[in-house]
Amino acid sequence: MQAQALNIETCLDKPDGMAADPIYRQVALLLEQDIRSHLKPGDLLASEMKLASRFKVNRHTVRRSIDQLVRAGLVVKQQGRGTQVVSNQIEYLLNPAGKFTKNLTEKGKSSQALLLATRSYTVATVPAGIGRIFALQYPAGGTLMELQTLRFMEQVPVCLIHHYVWAQALPGIATSYSGGSLHRHIENHYQRTLQRSQIQFSAVLATNRQAIHLKCAVDSPLAIVQSVNHDQQSRTLVEVSVSYSRPDRLQYQIDFNTTEVS
Fold it and tell me: Is residue 194 packed enough to be buried (19+ CB in 10 Å), middle (13-18) or exposed (0-12)?
């Protein structure tokens, strides 16, 4: 591709007399045009060195430009691979029977779930908001297992989930589950079908750990969805999940025809 040198002297002023955008933003705009015109999800951008040569700028400027594209949700940095163009935002339907894997499969998207960690709690030691929910149904207390999973769409991380499950309802879950769709595993291994009964929305700024997993900048906004899930047949509380997702990846849609959200 022909070099596109950015002449700082001629870019100092816009036609209307306003100051021009910084050089790194101009580079980001040109790269965004590349992405929208002829690159497709999964394609890799050229290396920082090649981009610096193409635009006649230094690598630090290129790095700032790419960081802006990351924050805009257009690309993701893959360690050892480079900078990859990501899929467009996808709608995620929330209803009582909605499942992450099923939703994406119906839209022709591949998905994966990686188990990051497991941890045991009691109702008294689990994070306060979660403990109160379980204490209402299990006042005598008991054991909870936390399963932390990272969900991918088209090999791009989109959602970090903390699943808090009632251990007595799912004995051995920490060893029987090793990744993939958790609810499908519960159906197949425990013959329990979970149904969403309550949803709560909020937002937070990404911590360093969340930013690393979700390939976003620290302090980027994340959408939080807390779901309370009961056994469809017995109506007993089995799981409370708290998911952190990038709003530039997932757009939540509530189906009022099939669910009541409280």
Answer: buried
